[in-house]
Specification:
The protein is built from 20 helices and no strands. It has 466 residues and is an all-alpha fold. It has 3 domains: 58 residues, no CATH class; 174 residues, no CATH class; 198 residues, no CATH class. Keywords: Membrane, Transmembrane, Transmembrane helix.
């Protein structure tokens, strides 16, 4: 039941009004937000007069906000502030995640690309899923004032990920008769992916860069000289740097000594709600990696064409936070939901355009490298365009996930997978690389359009931006 039910049963006291609307109103920080929430529920000036004795919605909202302020209990103190837009830091996240890629030529020189690249695809996909799942649980626990429990979740995810990396790499090495060093590289890559996620969660971008730059520099030196000794030095230095990053990540999760309830008790309610997010992470990783995996050995030009998306992930994260900050500011500036919807739609369109432009610029980098090496092809250009399109969809996905619309994200991502690789399995011509990447571009475009429609329609839910 909403506050505007027309059956005459709507509450007439302020306390009952607050209870009927739900938790959104209790989180309001000013009367304007309360007014926007009430109007989004269908409560107009007439209802405010007839049912609550106030001349208009804004007078009723002011009374409701005063009552909320009187009864609000101080929340538990948290050690970390929930994320907001931080352009200088967040836009570097993609670059920081991509630093180990500089070591791939050296690692390939030691163990061989035929073993290394499939292993990297498998561990990257699993690391993506584990990192996003652990981060979401940690954010939830930090927001509830349980930083120690959040640390335990992150440490458990790190340990599980490294063990899984060892098992996957060992299985691949045995199955394909690969070298034992592949196991160490797989574990190291998984440790970096999860540990770097922890450092970024705690806003330690500078520390991550300082620890990883020596290994990245050694990787660049190997590319220049091409000697086996330089490859071994670069890989060993990379292992040492990742060990330092892992140690720093673990130390961050151990900072609190506050006694907290058992983790199993805290997560009992969270795990059920986490399932859609876990499914979306699996579907997203599958959608992107299955498009690249067939080309990591024999068509490296196609496989690396989408590197701009990795570099631009920080831009997407920053733009998502910037849009949410702008939406919260609009709530304080407007008087009516219709005005908020109109101005927020402009901000949403601007965010999508800026993300696509930024990713397009970054996509030029791998294409320029391919051109300089004589490997540029039509297939690589189409693949780069597809990754730019996927990036625009991921920006919208960030927004919809933060609004709690993860189930819809899963549905739309599943539809994109039905196009690629689903439709490709039924079309013999799709096995040709150019046709395959074009089909992937089509699936990415559908993904972007559907998410744009969902995000635009979601602007009507004004209370979700409070």
């Amino acid at each position: 039941m909403t506050a505007a039910d027309a059956d005459g049963t709507a509450p007439r006291s302020i306390d009952e009004l607050i209870g009927s609307v739900g938790t959104f109103m209790s989180r309001a920080v000013e009367a304007q937000q309360v007014a926007a929430i009430l109007e989004s529920q269908g409560l107009n000036d007439k209802i405010a007069r007839e049912r609550y004795g106030h001349p208009d919605v804004f007078s009723l909202a002011a009374a409701a906000f005063s009552r909320i302020a009187e009864t609000r209990q101080p929340g538990p103190a948290t050690e970390e502030v929930l994320p907001r837009a931080r352009p200088a830091a967040q836009m570097t996240h993609g670059l920081l995640y991509a630093l180990p890629a500089v070591l791939l030529p050296a690692a390939s020189g030691l163990v061989g690309a035929r073993w290394l690249m499939p292993g990297m695809v498998l561990t990257t996909g699993l690391g993506w899923i584990l990192s996003s799942t652990a981060a979401q649980l940690a954010y939830s626990l930090i927001g509830r004032g349980m930083p120690g429990s959040a640390g335990r979740v992150l440490r458990s995810g790190l340990l599980l990920g490294v063990l899984a990396g060892v098992v996957m790499s060992a299985t691949l090495a045995l199955y394909r008769n690969g070298p034992a060093a592949l196991v160490a590289l797989g574990a190291t890559q998984m440790a970096f992916q999860l540990s770097s996620g922890i450092l970024l969660l705690y806003r330690r971008e500078k520390r991550l860069a300082v620890f990883m730059l020596p290994a990245a520099a050694a990787g660049v030196v190997y590319i220049g000289v091409g000697e086996p000794e330089a490859a071994l030095l670069a890989v060993c230095l990379g292992v040492v740097c990742v060990a330092a990053i892992t140690g720093a990540a673990v130390r961050l999760t151990l900072r609190t000594t506050k006694k907290e309830p058992a983790l199993r008790t805290l997560l009992r309610t969270d795990l059920r709600g986490l399932l859609p997010s876990f499914v979306y992470s699996v579907l997203s990783a599958t959608f992107l990696l299955q498009a690249e995996a067939p080309y990591v050995l024999d068509r490296i030009d196609i496989a690396v064409a989408g590197a701009g998306l990795v570099l631009g992930m920080g831009v997407l994260e920053y733009r998502a936070h910037a849009f949410e900050d702008e939406a919260r500011a609009l709530i304080r500036q407007v008087r009516y939901p219709a005005e908020f919807i109109r101005r927020a739609a402009v901000a949403l369109a601007r965010g999508v355009v800026l993300c696509l432009l930024a990713l397009s610029v970054l996509a030029v980098l791998p294409l320029a490298f391919l051109y300089a090496t004589g490997a540029l092809s039509h297939e690589s250009m189409v693949m780069a365009a597809a990754h730019v399109t996927v990036g625009g969809a991921y920006f919208l996905g960030f927004l919809l996930a933060n609004q709690g619309k993860v189930v819809l994200l899963c549905v739309v991502q599943g539809m994109a997978l039905a196009v690629h690789p689903g439709a490709g399995l039924l079309l013999p011509a799709a096995h040709v690389p150019l046709a395959d990447v074009r089909l992937f571009l089509g699936a990415a475009a559908m993904f972007l359009v559907f998410l744009l429609v969902l995000a635009a329609s979601g602007l009507r839910d004004v209370h979700r931006f409070c």
